[in-house]
Protein backbone atom coordinates (compact mmCIF):
# COMPACT_ATOMS: atom_id res chain seq x y z
CA UNK A 1 0.00 0.00 0.00
CA UNK A 2 1.28 3.47 -0.88
CA UNK A 3 2.20 5.60 2.13
CA UNK A 4 3.54 8.69 0.34
CA UNK A 5 2.33 11.97 1.83
CA UNK A 6 0.01 13.80 -0.51
CA UNK A 7 1.44 16.91 -2.18
CA UNK A 8 0.55 20.19 -0.39
CA UNK A 9 -1.28 21.56 -3.45
CA UNK A 10 -3.40 18.40 -3.70
CA UNK A 11 -4.22 18.74 0.00
CA UNK A 12 -5.00 22.47 -0.33
CA UNK A 13 -7.31 22.09 -3.34
CA UNK A 14 -9.14 19.21 -1.66
CA UNK A 15 -9.52 21.16 1.57
CA UNK A 16 -10.99 24.21 -0.16
CA UNK A 17 -13.47 22.05 -2.09
CA UNK A 18 -14.52 20.48 1.19
CA UNK A 19 -14.73 23.85 2.92
CA UNK A 20 -16.80 25.61 0.24
CA UNK A 21 -19.00 22.49 0.02
CA UNK A 22 -19.49 21.97 3.74
CA UNK A 23 -23.16 22.92 3.82
CA UNK A 24 -24.20 21.25 0.57
CA UNK A 25 -22.20 18.09 1.32
CA UNK A 26 -23.66 17.75 4.82
CA UNK A 27 -27.18 18.12 3.44
CA UNK A 28 -26.40 15.50 0.79
CA UNK A 29 -24.92 12.98 3.23
CA UNK A 30 -27.81 13.43 5.65
CA UNK A 31 -30.21 12.73 2.81
CA UNK A 32 -28.29 9.58 1.88
CA UNK A 33 -28.29 8.39 5.48
CA UNK A 34 -32.05 8.84 5.73
CA UNK A 35 -32.61 7.12 2.38
CA UNK A 36 -30.53 4.11 3.44
CA UNK A 37 -33.01 3.53 6.24
CA UNK A 38 -36.19 4.48 4.41
CA UNK A 39 -35.78 3.60 0.74
CA UNK A 40 -35.60 -0.16 0.24
CA UNK A 41 -37.89 -2.98 -0.78
CA UNK A 42 -38.53 -4.02 2.84
CA UNK A 43 -41.10 -1.21 2.89
CA UNK A 44 -42.91 -2.22 -0.30
CA UNK A 45 -46.50 -3.41 -0.02
CA UNK A 46 -47.54 -6.83 -1.32
CA UNK A 47 -49.11 -5.30 -4.43
CA UNK A 48 -45.91 -3.36 -5.16
CA UNK A 49 -43.82 -6.52 -4.89
CA UNK A 50 -46.19 -8.58 -6.98
CA UNK A 51 -45.91 -6.13 -9.84
CA UNK A 52 -42.13 -6.03 -9.52
CA UNK A 53 -41.60 -9.80 -9.78
CA UNK A 54 -44.50 -10.83 -12.02
CA UNK A 55 -42.26 -11.64 -14.99
CA UNK A 56 -39.30 -12.98 -12.99
CA UNK A 57 -38.32 -16.67 -12.92
CA UNK A 58 -39.83 -18.48 -9.96
CA UNK A 59 -36.46 -18.98 -8.27
CA UNK A 60 -35.74 -15.23 -8.43
CA UNK A 61 -39.28 -14.27 -7.53
CA UNK A 62 -39.25 -15.70 -4.02
CA UNK A 63 -35.76 -14.40 -3.25
CA UNK A 64 -36.80 -10.87 -4.16
CA UNK A 65 -40.02 -11.08 -2.17
CA UNK A 66 -38.28 -12.60 0.85
CA UNK A 67 -35.76 -9.70 0.84
CA UNK A 68 -33.08 -11.91 2.37
CA UNK A 69 -30.54 -11.62 -0.45
CA UNK A 70 -29.40 -8.60 -2.49
CA UNK A 71 -31.28 -7.59 -5.63
CA UNK A 72 -29.12 -5.76 -8.16
CA UNK A 73 -30.68 -3.10 -10.39
CA UNK A 74 -29.20 -2.89 -13.89
CA UNK A 75 -29.40 0.46 -15.67
CA UNK A 76 -28.38 0.04 -19.27
CA UNK A 77 -27.57 2.45 -22.08
CA UNK A 78 -27.64 -0.34 -24.65
CA UNK A 79 -28.43 0.33 -28.26
CA UNK A 80 -26.86 -1.20 -31.33
CA UNK A 81 -26.22 2.06 -33.17
CA UNK A 82 -23.42 3.03 -30.79
CA UNK A 83 -20.46 0.76 -31.41
CA UNK A 84 -19.36 1.27 -27.80
CA UNK A 85 -22.75 0.23 -26.41
CA UNK A 86 -23.63 -2.61 -28.77
CA UNK A 87 -21.78 -5.18 -26.58
CA UNK A 88 -24.14 -4.38 -23.69
CA UNK A 89 -26.84 -6.46 -25.43
CA UNK A 90 -25.57 -9.61 -23.71
CA UNK A 91 -24.62 -8.10 -20.35
CA UNK A 92 -27.94 -8.43 -18.47
CA UNK A 93 -28.09 -12.21 -18.93
CA UNK A 94 -24.47 -12.55 -17.82
CA UNK A 95 -25.03 -10.30 -14.80
CA UNK A 96 -28.14 -12.23 -13.76
CA UNK A 97 -26.25 -15.51 -14.06
CA UNK A 98 -23.38 -14.17 -11.93
CA UNK A 99 -25.82 -12.83 -9.32
CA UNK A 100 -27.66 -16.16 -9.07
CA UNK A 101 -24.35 -17.95 -8.57
CA UNK A 102 -23.93 -15.84 -5.43
CA UNK A 103 -27.48 -16.59 -4.25
CA UNK A 104 -28.61 -13.09 -5.24
CA UNK A 105 -30.84 -11.68 -7.98
CA UNK A 106 -30.60 -9.00 -10.66
CA UNK A 107 -33.18 -7.18 -12.76
CA UNK A 108 -32.94 -4.67 -15.58
CA UNK A 109 -34.32 -1.63 -13.78
CA UNK A 110 -34.53 0.44 -16.93
CA UNK A 111 -32.80 1.84 -19.98
CA UNK A 112 -31.47 5.32 -20.64
CA UNK A 113 -31.02 7.09 -23.99
CA UNK A 114 -27.56 7.10 -25.50
CA UNK A 115 -26.80 9.29 -28.46
CA UNK A 116 -23.62 9.18 -30.49
CA UNK A 117 -21.75 12.45 -30.91
CA UNK A 118 -19.90 10.89 -33.82
CA UNK A 119 -23.20 10.52 -35.71
CA UNK A 120 -24.54 13.96 -34.78
CA UNK A 121 -21.23 15.84 -35.13
CA UNK A 122 -21.84 18.96 -37.23
CA UNK A 123 -25.56 18.14 -37.46
CA UNK A 124 -28.57 19.77 -35.74
CA UNK A 125 -28.97 16.73 -33.47
CA UNK A 126 -25.72 17.68 -31.73
CA UNK A 127 -27.67 20.49 -30.06
CA UNK A 128 -29.34 17.84 -27.87
CA UNK A 129 -26.08 16.15 -26.92
CA UNK A 130 -25.14 18.02 -23.74
CA UNK A 131 -28.73 18.09 -22.51
CA UNK A 132 -28.86 14.31 -22.95
CA UNK A 133 -26.61 14.05 -19.87
CA UNK A 134 -29.35 15.45 -17.64
CA UNK A 135 -31.99 13.35 -19.39
CA UNK A 136 -29.90 10.22 -18.76
CA UNK A 137 -29.60 11.12 -15.08
CA UNK A 138 -33.36 11.56 -14.84
CA UNK A 139 -34.09 8.37 -16.80
CA UNK A 140 -31.79 6.40 -14.49
CA UNK A 141 -33.59 8.02 -11.57
CA UNK A 142 -36.88 6.73 -12.92
CA UNK A 143 -35.39 3.25 -13.30
CA UNK A 144 -34.18 3.15 -9.69
CA UNK A 145 -37.25 4.89 -8.26
CA UNK A 146 -39.01 1.51 -8.04
CA UNK A 147 -37.14 1.19 -4.74
CA UNK A 148 -36.52 -2.49 -5.26
CA UNK A 149 -32.73 -2.62 -5.29
CA UNK A 150 -29.85 -3.06 -2.89
CA UNK A 151 -27.18 -2.03 -5.40
CA UNK A 152 -26.92 -0.72 -8.96
CA UNK A 153 -24.87 -1.69 -12.00
CA UNK A 154 -24.52 1.01 -14.65
CA UNK A 155 -23.82 0.03 -18.25
CA UNK A 156 -22.49 3.00 -20.17
CA UNK A 157 -19.35 4.23 -21.89
CA UNK A 158 -19.70 7.26 -24.11
CA UNK A 159 -19.68 11.00 -23.89
CA UNK A 160 -22.73 12.18 -21.89
CA UNK A 161 -23.85 8.74 -20.80
CA UNK A 162 -21.30 8.04 -18.07
CA UNK A 163 -21.59 11.54 -16.52
CA UNK A 164 -25.40 11.23 -16.55
CA UNK A 165 -25.18 7.83 -14.89
CA UNK A 166 -22.75 9.16 -12.27
CA UNK A 167 -25.20 11.96 -11.44
CA UNK A 168 -27.85 9.25 -10.97
CA UNK A 169 -25.46 7.13 -8.89
CA UNK A 170 -24.87 10.16 -6.65
CA UNK A 171 -28.60 10.80 -6.35
CA UNK A 172 -29.05 7.19 -5.21
CA UNK A 173 -25.79 7.35 -3.29
CA UNK A 174 -27.05 5.16 -0.43
CA UNK A 175 -26.78 2.22 -2.87
CA UNK A 176 -23.46 0.58 -3.71
CA UNK A 177 -22.80 0.88 -7.42
CA UNK A 178 -20.42 -0.34 -10.08
CA UNK A 179 -19.80 0.80 -13.65
CA UNK A 180 -19.34 -2.01 -16.16
CA UNK A 181 -17.70 -0.84 -19.39
CA UNK A 182 -17.51 -2.55 -22.77
CA UNK A 183 -14.04 -1.49 -23.88
CA UNK A 184 -12.52 -0.02 -27.06
CA UNK A 185 -12.75 -1.49 -30.55
CA UNK A 186 -9.56 -3.04 -31.89
CA UNK A 187 -7.29 -0.64 -33.73
CA UNK A 188 -8.04 0.33 -37.33
CA UNK A 189 -6.06 2.70 -39.53
CA UNK A 190 -3.72 5.03 -37.69
CA UNK A 191 -5.05 8.25 -36.25
CA UNK A 192 -2.44 10.21 -38.21
CA UNK A 193 -3.81 8.67 -41.44
CA UNK A 194 -7.38 9.55 -40.48
CA UNK A 195 -6.46 13.14 -39.60
CA UNK A 196 -4.52 13.54 -42.85
CA UNK A 197 -7.48 12.42 -44.98
CA UNK A 198 -9.81 14.75 -43.08
CA UNK A 199 -7.53 17.69 -43.76
CA UNK A 200 -7.15 16.66 -47.41
CA UNK A 201 -10.94 16.57 -47.74
CA UNK A 202 -11.28 19.98 -46.07
CA UNK A 203 -8.72 21.37 -48.53
CA UNK A 204 -10.51 19.79 -51.51
CA UNK A 205 -7.63 17.44 -52.30
CA UNK A 206 -9.68 14.23 -51.96
CA UNK A 207 -13.37 13.51 -52.45
CA UNK A 208 -16.12 12.19 -50.21
CA UNK A 209 -15.51 8.57 -51.29
CA UNK A 210 -11.93 8.68 -50.00
CA UNK A 211 -13.04 10.38 -46.79
CA UNK A 212 -15.77 7.80 -46.14
CA UNK A 213 -13.36 4.92 -46.78
CA UNK A 214 -10.88 6.31 -44.26
CA UNK A 215 -13.58 6.92 -41.65
CA UNK A 216 -14.96 3.39 -42.01
CA UNK A 217 -11.47 1.91 -41.68
CA UNK A 218 -11.11 3.87 -38.45
CA UNK A 219 -14.59 3.20 -36.96
CA UNK A 220 -15.00 -0.41 -37.95
CA UNK A 221 -16.02 -2.70 -35.09
CA UNK A 222 -17.82 -3.03 -31.77
CA UNK A 223 -16.35 -0.93 -28.99
CA UNK A 224 -15.41 2.61 -28.14
CA UNK A 225 -13.73 4.81 -30.74
CA UNK A 226 -10.03 4.34 -30.10
CA UNK A 227 -8.91 7.97 -29.91
CA UNK A 228 -8.65 9.61 -26.50
CA UNK A 229 -11.85 11.64 -26.64
CA UNK A 230 -14.61 12.00 -24.09
CA UNK A 231 -15.70 8.34 -24.10
CA UNK A 232 -12.27 6.99 -23.21
CA UNK A 233 -11.65 9.91 -20.84
CA UNK A 234 -14.82 8.77 -19.05
CA UNK A 235 -13.32 5.32 -18.64
CA UNK A 236 -10.12 6.77 -17.23
CA UNK A 237 -12.17 8.83 -14.80
CA UNK A 238 -14.16 5.84 -13.56
CA UNK A 239 -10.93 4.08 -12.59
CA UNK A 240 -9.29 7.12 -11.00
CA UNK A 241 -12.48 7.70 -9.00
CA UNK A 242 -12.84 4.04 -8.03
CA UNK A 243 -16.22 3.45 -9.67
CA UNK A 244 -15.24 0.49 -11.84
CA UNK A 245 -12.82 -2.37 -11.40
CA UNK A 246 -9.07 -1.84 -11.83
CA UNK A 247 -7.78 -2.43 -15.34
CA UNK A 248 -11.25 -2.76 -16.83
CA UNK A 249 -11.36 0.38 -18.99
CA UNK A 250 -9.50 -0.65 -22.11
CA UNK A 251 -10.10 -4.39 -22.50
CA UNK A 252 -11.62 -5.07 -25.93
CA UNK A 253 -15.25 -6.26 -26.23
CA UNK A 254 -16.24 -9.86 -26.78
CA UNK A 255 -13.09 -11.32 -25.24
CA UNK A 256 -12.82 -13.78 -22.34
CA UNK A 257 -11.25 -11.15 -20.08
CA UNK A 258 -14.01 -8.65 -20.87
CA UNK A 259 -16.65 -11.23 -19.87
CA UNK A 260 -14.72 -12.20 -16.74
CA UNK A 261 -14.55 -8.55 -15.67
CA UNK A 262 -18.31 -8.16 -16.08
CA UNK A 263 -18.84 -11.19 -13.84
CA UNK A 264 -16.28 -9.92 -11.33
CA UNK A 265 -17.91 -6.48 -11.25
CA UNK A 266 -21.29 -8.05 -10.53
CA UNK A 267 -19.87 -10.16 -7.74
CA UNK A 268 -18.02 -7.23 -6.20
CA UNK A 269 -20.93 -4.80 -6.10
CA UNK A 270 -23.06 -7.47 -4.43
CA UNK A 271 -20.36 -7.89 -1.77
CA UNK A 272 -20.64 -4.16 -1.08
CA UNK A 273 -24.31 -4.40 -0.11
CA UNK A 274 -25.49 -4.28 3.49
CA UNK A 275 -26.78 -7.85 3.12
CA UNK A 276 -23.30 -9.26 2.47
CA UNK A 277 -21.53 -7.26 5.14
CA UNK A 278 -19.16 -4.89 3.29
CA UNK A 279 -21.55 -1.98 2.86
CA UNK A 280 -19.90 0.71 0.72
CA UNK A 281 -22.49 3.09 -0.68
CA UNK A 282 -21.71 5.25 -3.71
CA UNK A 283 -21.85 8.41 -1.58
CA UNK A 284 -18.71 7.22 0.24
CA UNK A 285 -16.89 6.62 -3.04
CA UNK A 286 -17.96 10.00 -4.47
CA UNK A 287 -15.87 12.10 -2.08
CA UNK A 288 -13.96 15.32 -2.66
CA UNK A 289 -10.76 13.26 -2.70
CA UNK A 290 -12.16 11.06 -5.47
CA UNK A 291 -13.02 14.08 -7.62
CA UNK A 292 -9.55 15.57 -7.08
CA UNK A 293 -8.07 12.23 -8.14
CA UNK A 294 -10.22 12.35 -11.25
CA UNK A 295 -9.06 15.86 -12.17
CA UNK A 296 -5.44 14.83 -11.70
CA UNK A 297 -6.03 11.81 -13.96
CA UNK A 298 -7.64 14.03 -16.58
CA UNK A 299 -4.58 16.27 -16.67
CA UNK A 300 -1.97 13.51 -16.48
CA UNK A 301 -3.47 11.73 -19.49
CA UNK A 302 -4.47 14.78 -21.57
CA UNK A 303 -8.16 13.92 -21.46
CA UNK A 304 -11.25 15.57 -22.91
CA UNK A 305 -12.23 19.15 -22.19
CA UNK A 306 -15.83 17.93 -21.89
CA UNK A 307 -14.90 16.41 -18.55
CA UNK A 308 -14.45 19.91 -17.12
CA UNK A 309 -18.18 20.45 -17.54
CA UNK A 310 -19.08 16.96 -16.43
CA UNK A 311 -16.92 16.78 -13.30
CA UNK A 312 -18.44 20.03 -12.02
CA UNK A 313 -21.97 18.67 -12.61
CA UNK A 314 -21.21 15.21 -11.19
CA UNK A 315 -19.62 16.69 -8.09
CA UNK A 316 -22.61 18.96 -7.52
CA UNK A 317 -24.89 15.90 -7.56
CA UNK A 318 -22.81 14.60 -4.64
CA UNK A 319 -23.06 17.88 -2.75
CA UNK A 320 -19.60 19.10 -3.78
CA UNK A 321 -18.80 22.46 -5.40
CA UNK A 322 -15.87 22.23 -7.84
CA UNK A 323 -14.70 25.33 -9.68
CA UNK A 324 -12.46 26.09 -12.65
CA UNK A 325 -9.71 27.36 -10.35
CA UNK A 326 -9.45 23.82 -8.95
CA UNK A 327 -8.76 22.48 -12.44
CA UNK A 328 -6.15 25.19 -13.09
CA UNK A 329 -4.24 24.63 -9.87
CA UNK A 330 -4.22 20.85 -10.29
CA UNK A 331 -3.23 21.17 -13.95
CA UNK A 332 -0.25 23.36 -13.08
CA UNK A 333 0.99 20.65 -10.71
CA UNK A 334 0.25 17.52 -12.74
CA UNK A 335 2.76 16.24 -15.32
CA UNK A 336 1.46 15.16 -18.73
CA UNK A 337 2.46 11.49 -18.81
CA UNK A 338 0.61 10.23 -21.89
CA UNK A 339 0.48 11.04 -25.59
CA UNK A 340 -2.67 9.50 -27.03
CA UNK A 341 -4.43 10.84 -30.13
CA UNK A 342 -5.27 13.72 -30.58
CA UNK A 343 -2.30 14.55 -28.32
CA UNK A 344 -0.11 11.96 -30.06
CA UNK A 345 -0.28 9.28 -32.73
CA UNK A 346 -1.12 6.29 -30.50
CA UNK A 347 -4.64 5.08 -29.68
CA UNK A 348 -5.99 3.76 -26.38
CA UNK A 349 -5.13 0.16 -27.26
CA UNK A 350 -1.49 1.18 -27.64
CA UNK A 351 -1.71 3.18 -24.41
CA UNK A 352 -3.14 0.18 -22.54
CA UNK A 353 -0.43 -2.11 -23.92
CA UNK A 354 2.29 0.38 -22.91
CA UNK A 355 1.23 0.14 -19.26
CA UNK A 356 -2.01 2.11 -19.28
CA UNK A 357 -3.88 3.55 -16.36
CA UNK A 358 -2.27 1.19 -13.84
CA UNK A 359 1.17 2.62 -14.64
CA UNK A 360 -0.10 6.21 -14.48
CA UNK A 361 -1.85 5.67 -11.13
CA UNK A 362 1.20 3.97 -9.60
CA UNK A 363 3.46 6.83 -10.70
CA UNK A 364 1.11 9.54 -9.47
CA UNK A 365 0.65 7.82 -6.12
CA UNK A 366 4.43 7.60 -5.73
CA UNK A 367 4.68 11.33 -6.46
CA UNK A 368 2.02 12.16 -3.87
CA UNK A 369 -0.28 13.52 -6.56
CA UNK A 370 -3.26 11.29 -5.74
CA UNK A 371 -5.21 10.52 -2.59
CA UNK A 372 -4.64 6.89 -1.67
CA UNK A 373 -7.09 6.91 1.26
CA UNK A 374 -10.36 6.66 -0.68
CA UNK A 375 -13.23 4.19 -0.84
CA UNK A 376 -13.50 2.35 -4.16
CA UNK A 377 -15.57 -0.51 -5.53
CA UNK A 378 -12.40 -2.64 -5.33
CA UNK A 379 -11.90 -1.92 -1.63
CA UNK A 380 -10.40 0.84 0.48
CA UNK A 381 -7.36 2.51 -1.06
CA UNK A 382 -6.43 3.60 -4.57
CA UNK A 383 -3.49 1.17 -4.54
CA UNK A 384 -5.91 -1.46 -5.87
CA UNK A 385 -5.83 0.47 -9.16
CA UNK A 386 -2.13 -0.14 -9.72
CA UNK A 387 -3.09 -3.75 -10.39
CA UNK A 388 -3.75 -5.14 -13.87
CA UNK A 389 -6.60 -7.52 -14.67
CA UNK A 390 -5.70 -10.98 -16.00
CA UNK A 391 -7.35 -14.39 -16.39
CA UNK A 392 -6.53 -17.31 -14.13
CA UNK A 393 -6.47 -20.94 -15.28
CA UNK A 394 -10.22 -21.18 -14.71
CA UNK A 395 -11.05 -18.13 -16.81
CA UNK A 396 -11.82 -15.89 -13.82
CA UNK A 397 -10.53 -12.34 -13.44
CA UNK A 398 -7.59 -11.90 -11.09
CA UNK A 399 -5.38 -8.89 -10.39
CA UNK A 400 -1.60 -8.77 -10.55
CA UNK A 401 0.81 -5.89 -10.15
CA UNK A 402 0.86 -3.74 -13.30
CA UNK A 403 3.81 -2.72 -15.45
CA UNK A 404 6.73 -1.33 -13.44
CA UNK A 405 7.92 0.68 -16.43
CA UNK A 406 6.49 2.01 -19.66
CA UNK A 407 6.77 -0.32 -22.62
CA UNK A 408 6.78 2.64 -25.03
CA UNK A 409 8.02 6.02 -23.84
CA UNK A 410 6.64 7.71 -26.96
CA UNK A 411 3.19 6.95 -25.54
CA UNK A 412 3.62 6.75 -21.78
CA UNK A 413 6.29 8.11 -19.48
CA UNK A 414 7.02 8.17 -15.74
CA UNK A 415 6.21 11.42 -13.97
CA UNK A 416 9.93 12.25 -13.64
CA UNK A 417 10.30 12.17 -17.45
CA UNK A 418 6.90 13.53 -18.43
CA UNK A 419 6.11 15.05 -21.83
CA UNK A 420 5.54 18.35 -20.05
CA UNK A 421 5.58 19.40 -16.42
CA UNK A 422 1.97 20.57 -16.35
CA UNK A 423 -1.30 19.02 -17.45
CA UNK A 424 -3.33 19.80 -20.52
CA UNK A 425 -6.01 22.13 -19.14
CA UNK A 426 -5.61 25.86 -18.54
CA UNK A 427 -8.25 28.36 -17.41
CA UNK A 428 -8.22 31.66 -19.30
CA UNK A 429 -9.51 34.89 -17.73
CA UNK A 430 -9.80 38.45 -18.94
CA UNK A 431 -12.31 40.98 -20.18
CA UNK A 432 -14.03 38.26 -22.19
CA UNK A 433 -14.87 36.27 -19.07
CA UNK A 434 -13.67 32.77 -18.24
CA UNK A 435 -12.76 29.98 -20.67
CA UNK A 436 -10.88 26.69 -20.83
CA UNK A 437 -8.13 25.68 -23.25
CA UNK A 438 -6.49 22.29 -23.75
CA UNK A 439 -2.83 22.77 -24.67
CA UNK A 440 -1.45 19.24 -24.50
CA UNK A 441 -1.44 18.98 -28.32
CA UNK A 442 -0.70 22.67 -28.99
CA UNK A 443 2.95 23.42 -29.69
CA UNK A 444 4.46 25.88 -27.19
CA UNK A 445 5.13 28.47 -29.89
CA UNK A 446 1.41 28.54 -30.76
CA UNK A 447 0.08 29.01 -27.24
CA UNK A 448 0.19 32.79 -27.46
CA UNK A 449 -1.51 34.63 -30.31
CA UNK A 450 -2.45 38.27 -30.87
CA UNK A 451 -4.52 38.74 -34.01
CA UNK A 452 -7.68 40.39 -35.38
CA UNK A 453 -11.06 38.75 -34.92
CA UNK A 454 -13.20 37.18 -37.60
CA UNK A 455 -16.69 36.81 -36.12
CA UNK A 456 -19.29 34.14 -36.91
CA UNK A 457 -22.62 33.08 -35.42
CA UNK A 458 -22.62 29.59 -36.94
CA UNK A 459 -19.98 26.98 -37.72
CA UNK A 460 -21.42 26.58 -41.20
CA UNK A 461 -20.53 30.22 -41.87
CA UNK A 462 -16.91 29.44 -40.97
CA UNK A 463 -16.89 26.57 -43.45
CA UNK A 464 -18.41 28.76 -46.15
CA UNK A 465 -15.80 31.46 -45.55
CA UNK A 466 -13.04 28.87 -45.81
CA UNK A 467 -14.35 27.54 -49.11
CA UNK A 468 -14.63 31.10 -50.45
CA UNK A 469 -10.98 31.77 -49.58
CA UNK A 470 -11.87 34.50 -47.09
CA UNK A 471 -9.88 33.15 -44.13
CA UNK A 472 -6.56 34.77 -44.95
CA UNK A 473 -3.77 36.07 -42.76
CA UNK A 474 -3.48 35.62 -39.01
CA UNK A 475 -6.80 35.76 -37.18
CA UNK A 476 -8.83 34.64 -34.18
CA UNK A 477 -11.97 32.80 -35.24
CA UNK A 478 -14.83 33.83 -32.93
CA UNK A 479 -17.87 31.53 -33.07
CA UNK A 480 -20.52 32.76 -30.65
CA UNK A 481 -24.12 31.97 -29.70
CA UNK A 482 -23.00 28.36 -29.27
CA UNK A 483 -23.50 28.20 -25.49
CA UNK A 484 -25.97 26.01 -23.59
CA UNK A 485 -28.73 28.65 -23.49
CA UNK A 486 -28.36 29.52 -27.17
CA UNK A 487 -28.45 26.09 -28.76
CA UNK A 488 -27.40 23.43 -26.25
CA UNK A 489 -23.64 23.98 -26.62
CA UNK A 490 -22.83 21.65 -29.53
CA UNK A 491 -19.31 20.43 -30.19
CA UNK A 492 -17.59 22.37 -32.95
CA UNK A 493 -14.67 20.09 -33.62
CA UNK A 494 -15.62 19.77 -37.30
CA UNK A 495 -13.84 23.15 -37.48
CA UNK A 496 -10.58 21.49 -36.43
CA UNK A 497 -9.60 20.25 -39.94
CA UNK A 498 -10.26 23.70 -41.45
CA UNK A 499 -8.26 25.62 -38.85
CA UNK A 500 -5.59 22.91 -38.98
CA UNK A 501 -5.20 23.41 -42.75
CA UNK A 502 -4.78 27.17 -42.28
CA UNK A 503 -2.25 26.66 -39.48
CA UNK A 504 -0.28 24.23 -41.64
CA UNK A 505 -0.18 26.89 -44.37
CA UNK A 506 1.73 29.12 -41.98
CA UNK A 507 -1.10 31.27 -40.64
CA UNK A 508 -1.40 31.94 -36.93
CA UNK A 509 -4.97 31.04 -35.98
CA UNK A 510 -7.01 30.35 -32.84
CA UNK A 511 -10.63 29.72 -31.92
CA UNK A 512 -12.74 31.44 -29.26
CA UNK A 513 -16.24 30.14 -28.58
CA UNK A 514 -18.90 29.74 -25.94
CA UNK A 515 -19.43 26.27 -27.43
CA UNK A 516 -17.49 23.03 -26.97
CA UNK A 517 -14.69 21.27 -28.84
CA UNK A 518 -14.71 17.89 -27.03
CA UNK A 519 -11.91 15.39 -26.60
CA UNK A 520 -10.92 16.05 -30.20
CA UNK A 521 -9.43 19.43 -29.25
CA UNK A 522 -6.14 19.32 -31.09
CA UNK A 523 -3.21 21.33 -32.34
CA UNK A 524 -5.06 24.64 -32.87
CA UNK A 525 -5.38 26.79 -29.73
CA UNK A 526 -9.07 26.86 -28.79
CA UNK A 527 -10.55 28.90 -25.93
CA UNK A 528 -13.85 27.14 -25.28
CA UNK A 529 -16.72 27.05 -22.75
CA UNK A 530 -16.51 30.85 -22.57
CA UNK A 531 -18.71 32.19 -19.77
CA UNK A 532 -20.86 34.23 -19.66
CA UNK A 533 -22.12 33.06 -23.02
CA UNK A 534 -23.31 35.37 -25.79
CA UNK A 535 -26.97 34.49 -25.15
CA UNK A 536 -26.54 35.87 -21.62
CA UNK A 537 -25.08 39.11 -22.96
CA UNK A 538 -21.55 37.91 -22.28
CA UNK A 539 -18.58 39.92 -23.48
CA UNK A 540 -18.09 37.60 -26.48
CA UNK A 541 -21.25 39.27 -27.88
CA UNK A 542 -19.40 42.61 -27.87
CA UNK A 543 -16.58 41.53 -30.19
CA UNK A 544 -16.48 43.27 -33.56
CA UNK A 545 -14.85 42.18 -36.79
CA UNK A 546 -11.19 43.18 -36.73
CA UNK A 547 -10.89 43.64 -32.94
CA UNK A 548 -7.41 42.74 -31.78
CA UNK A 549 -7.58 39.75 -29.41
CA UNK A 550 -4.78 38.31 -27.29
CA UNK A 551 -4.98 34.68 -26.19
CA UNK A 552 -2.15 33.74 -23.85
CA UNK A 553 -2.31 30.13 -22.65
CA UNK A 554 1.02 30.54 -20.84
CA UNK A 555 -0.25 33.34 -18.59
CA UNK A 556 -3.89 32.23 -18.62
CA UNK A 557 -5.36 35.38 -20.15
CA UNK A 558 -7.95 36.13 -22.83
CA UNK A 559 -8.38 39.79 -23.70
CA UNK A 560 -9.92 42.02 -26.35
CA UNK A 561 -7.51 44.94 -26.92
CA UNK A 562 -10.04 47.64 -27.76
CA UNK A 563 -10.33 50.85 -25.73
CA UNK A 564 -14.11 51.05 -25.96
CA UNK A 565 -14.77 47.34 -25.44
CA UNK A 566 -16.26 47.55 -21.95
CA UNK A 567 -18.76 50.25 -22.94
CA UNK A 568 -20.14 48.46 -26.00
CA UNK A 569 -23.57 46.88 -26.15
CA UNK A 570 -23.86 43.14 -26.73
CA UNK A 571 -25.25 42.10 -30.11
CA UNK A 572 -28.34 39.92 -30.30
CA UNK A 573 -28.64 37.01 -32.71
CA UNK A 574 -31.67 35.50 -34.40
CA UNK A 575 -31.77 31.97 -32.96
CA UNK A 576 -35.11 30.83 -34.38
CA UNK A 577 -33.30 28.18 -36.40
CA UNK A 578 -32.20 26.45 -33.18
CA UNK A 579 -35.67 26.05 -31.76
CA UNK A 580 -37.15 23.13 -33.72
CA UNK A 581 -36.28 20.10 -35.78
CA UNK A 582 -34.86 16.70 -34.81
CA UNK A 583 -36.42 17.03 -31.37
CA UNK A 584 -34.99 20.44 -30.49
CA UNK A 585 -38.47 21.80 -29.78
CA UNK A 586 -38.73 19.33 -26.89
CA UNK A 587 -35.71 20.86 -25.18
CA UNK A 588 -36.80 24.48 -24.92
CA UNK A 589 -37.22 24.09 -21.16
CA UNK A 590 -33.59 22.95 -20.91
CA UNK A 591 -32.31 25.96 -22.87
CA UNK A 592 -34.27 28.23 -20.54
CA UNK A 593 -33.19 26.53 -17.30
CA UNK A 594 -29.57 25.57 -17.99
CA UNK A 595 -26.74 27.08 -15.96
CA UNK A 596 -23.46 28.46 -17.24
CA UNK A 597 -20.59 26.34 -18.52
CA UNK A 598 -18.50 27.37 -15.52
CA UNK A 599 -21.09 25.66 -13.29
CA UNK A 600 -21.31 22.49 -15.37
CA UNK A 601 -23.94 23.59 -17.93
CA UNK A 602 -26.65 21.63 -16.15
CA UNK A 603 -30.36 22.28 -15.98
CA UNK A 604 -30.46 20.20 -12.77
CA UNK A 605 -28.10 22.44 -10.76
CA UNK A 606 -28.39 25.70 -12.74
CA UNK A 607 -28.49 28.13 -9.83
CA UNK A 608 -26.44 26.23 -7.27
CA UNK A 609 -22.77 26.19 -6.39
Automatic annotation (TrEMBL):
Gene3D superfamilies: IlvD/EDD C-terminal domain-like (3.50.30.80). Its EC number is 4.2.1.12. [4Fe-4S] cluster binds at residues 158, 225. Binds 1 [4Fe-4S] cluster. One of its GO terms (cellular component) is cytosol. GO terms for molecular function: 4 iron, 4 sulfur cluster binding; metal ion binding; phosphogluconate dehydratase activity. Pathway: Carbohydrate metabolism; Entner-Doudoroff pathway. It catalyses: 6-phospho-D-gluconate = 2-dehydro-3-deoxy-6-phospho-D-gluconate + H2O. Residues 70-382 form the Dihydroxy-acid/6-phosphogluconate dehydratase N-terminal domain. Catalyzes the dehydration of 6-phospho-D-gluconate to 2-dehydro-3-deoxy-6-phospho-D-gluconate. Belongs to the IlvD/Edd family. This is Phosphogluconate dehydratase. It comes from Thiothrix eikelboomii. The gene is edd.
